[in-house]
Design brief:
The chain is mainly beta. It has 3 helices and 22 strands. It folds into 3 domains: about 160 residues, no CATH class; about 80 residues, membrane protein fhac (Ubiquitin-like (UB roll)); about 140 residues, Porin (Beta Barrel). The strands form 3 sheets. Strands 5-6-7-8-9-10-11-12-13-14-15-18-19-20-21-22 form a 16-stranded antiparallel sheet, with no helix packed on it. A hairpin with a 3-residue loop joins strand 7 and strand 8. The radius of gyration is 24 Å and the shape is globular. The N terminus is likely disordered.
Length: about 450
């Protein structure tokens, strides 16, 4: 146990020193910025005027609609803090500041944002399924804020493992008060089978995916998704449902989302509920269903500590094709059994994590070319940590569900808050036999 503690301490010190070395500007705080400690403050102010500065490309309306209050409204500090986090959750800015300024016996709200770099053309290199034997490489183009309206555009072409050509367009809010959102995706790819029973087999896929939905209020979303995909493989492989080796799969998915998290990138409190129902049909009348649900709850224990809870599951009915089965060990993983592959048609998962802040998020500037100053200033850095427990199981329709089939893992990790990528997680996971895994991953686990 002493060796493990020593490794964790050295691991933490090493990464902290590396990150501190690459920043060469002073770290600073703004005392006038709305602080979490004021969330419990019941006092309110009447905001006479709202001013926004720093948004050279982003439309004012994009920020104002996240506030949930207007000029001349009576607003509490708790509402101001929540609105600041909603604007930060747009993932368009390196930093968001709300300052309440008293002027001529009235109060004005000054919103200062630092826009991040939105447009990237870059070489792409990544590990499929987090496996060094499954490398993809190519080029990608991304725009995170097209026309200053938070529209996301992505073009991607990669070779190697699972070659892929893909175009994605996402508009999270259009038609103003209509509050509609839409996503579109075109893809052409070659996919290596994930099934343990069909290893080293591949299929070719080409398809389109279109989603249209509506936001009710500010936190509730309802939508439908239509997907058409043609899957081709030699008939003798047995990957397709059709004996011809070509499956023409048409699916319709309806979804409901309630998202009341305070900060999407690293929630401290709130709820996230997602439910989906998928109806998929193949040629010759073959139909199957998949019902899914995810519930997350974030309980603030103190200003520096959060208890994060998650429950998720998917239930299937009908004849599920091999390429639409569910797995642990790919997108869904159990830390401590991070690379263990479980395959089935249904799954159930649960996660608990106690998160606590080690170093409050601060901001630094990088000395770069003057024209890039706005994109490399107010960059965040902070440290948090977590103690976690993950569990889950998968099963097929011809298997009985049993609590004894659950696989579990536990551990602890360091969470490094960084600009652009938001979060880098360095974790130690343990299985039930006490075997240790070192995990390097991005973004909050849930």
């Amino acid at each position: 146990m002493k060796k493990i503690k020593r490794k964790i301490l050295l691991f933490t010190i090493f990464w902290t020193l590396i990150l501190c070395q690459i920043i060469s500007a002073q770290v600073y705080f703004n005392d006038r910025e709305i602080d979490e400690s004021k969330k419990a403050d019941s006092s309110s102010v009447r905001i006479k005027k709202i001013a926004i500065v720093g948004n050279k490309k982003t439309k004012d309306q994009l920020i104002l609609r996240e506030l949930l209050f207007s000029e001349n409204d009576l607003v509490s500090f708790k509402q101001l803090s929540a609105a600041q986090k909603r604007v930060q959750s747009l993932n368009l800015f390196t930093r968001v500041r709300f300052d309440v300024v008293e002027k001529d016996q009235s109060f004005n709200l000054l919103i200062t944002v630092n826009e991040q770099w939105y447009f990237f053309i870059y070489p792409t290199f990544y590990l499929n399924e987090k496996d060094w034997q499954k490398i993809s490489y190519g080029v990608s183009l991304r725009h995170y804020n097209l026309m200053g309206k938070n529209i996301f555009l992505k073009l991607k072409a990669v070779n190697g493992f699972n070659p892929l050509y893909q175009a994605i367009y996402q508009n999270p809010w259009f038609l103003g008060k209509g509050k509609l959102y839409s996503n579109f995706r075109f893809f052409k790819t070659k996919v290596n089978s994930r099934s343990a029973r069909h290893q080293n087999l591949t299929d070719d896929r080409i398809g389109i995916d279109w989603a249209l939905g509506k936001r009710f209020g500010h936190f509730t979303f309802v939508g439908v998704d239509v997907n058409y995909c043609q899957i081709s493989a030699p008939p003798e492989m047995g990957l397709t449902a059709s004996v011809s080796g070509i499956d023409k799969l048409l699916s319709l998915t309806s979804g409901f989302t309630y998202d009341h998290r305070d900060l999407a990138e690293y929630p401290h409190q709130g709820w996230l509920l997602q439910c989906g129902w998928k109806l998929a049909g193949l040629q010759k009348g073959t139909v199957y269903h998949q019902h899914s649900a995810t519930l997350r709850h974030y309980v603030p224990i103190s200003q520096k500590m959060t208890l994060a809870l998650r429950a998720a599951g998917l239930i299937s009915s009908g004849q599920i094709p091999i390429y639409d089965r569910v797995y642990f060990g790919y997108e869904e993983r159990i830390r401590g059994r991070f690379y263990e592959i479980l395959e089935g048609e249904n799954y159930c998962a649960g996660n608990v994590e106690l998160r606590f802040r080690l170093l409050k998020i601060s901001y630094f500037d990088l000395p770069m070319i003057h024209r890039l100053k706005s994109y490399v200033s107010n960059l965040k850095f902070g440290l948090s940590a977590g103690i976690f427990y993950d569990t889950g199981t998968v099963w097929s329709k011809n298997q009985k569900w049993s609590i004894q089939h659950f696989k579990s893992g536990y551990g602890l990790g360091l969470h490094i808050h960084l600009p652009y990528i938001n979060l880098l997680r360095l974790e130690y996971g343990f299985n039930s036999q006490g075997q240790i895994q070192r995990i390097v991953d991005f973004d909050v686990a849930f």
